Amino acid sequence: MNALADLLPFSRMGGLVLDIYVEYIFRQVVLLIRIVRSRNWPVMKATVTTSNCPVAGYGCDVAEVCYKYRVDGELYTGSYRKPFIIHNSAEIFVNNSVPVGADLVVRLKPDDPSTSIVLERGTK
Hints:
The protein is of the alpha+beta class. The protein contains two helices and five strands. It has a five-stranded antiparallel beta sheet with strand order 3-2-1-4-5. The termini are far apart.
């Protein structure tokens, strides 16, 4: 009985680690589907307004990037959430790839410019 009790915490830990990978894969698949569905949308440049990576209490860490862009003089905003398995990787992404003021490449829904999808990062 003691051997089983000794394994129980390890089993719980293994389950939590597996949850991180499951969430990460799910988020990546959702991002891929959105990119594929928007493949015919026009492309434009957006500017990062905020970026951060809060530490996840459970699941994978997710970098959060907010951005703005203009269409026909009207200002729009959007957000992008990129999953990471390792928190350090998320911090590096936020600090080096999408600091405030950096450019992003986004696709805009033709009949609704308030809907956008981030394709890749640009340059500052």
